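Q: What would this chain look like folded?
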Amino acid sequence: MYNLDLEKAVEKIRLEKVKTVLIQLPDGLKPKAKEIKDILDKRTDAEILIWGGSCFGACDIPHTNSINVDLLIQFGHSEWKDV
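A: My prediction, written as structure tokens:
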């Protein structure tokens, strides 16, 4: 079981008035994608998109040239502190 801290994501989206969010998940968390999207859809006004491509860690950033994304949220298996 993972603590994805969705409340922190909701706060960030609301605080920054984000319109479009891209969620990136490693393969082990992709089965939770719909659940994550549903929670963020209910709690924010942002459009929530799920990245279906690869995710080999925090340095594997999706190429979003064809879509306009205001915020990228990467969930992983290890906790990172805010920088």
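The two ends are 25 Å apart (CA to CA).
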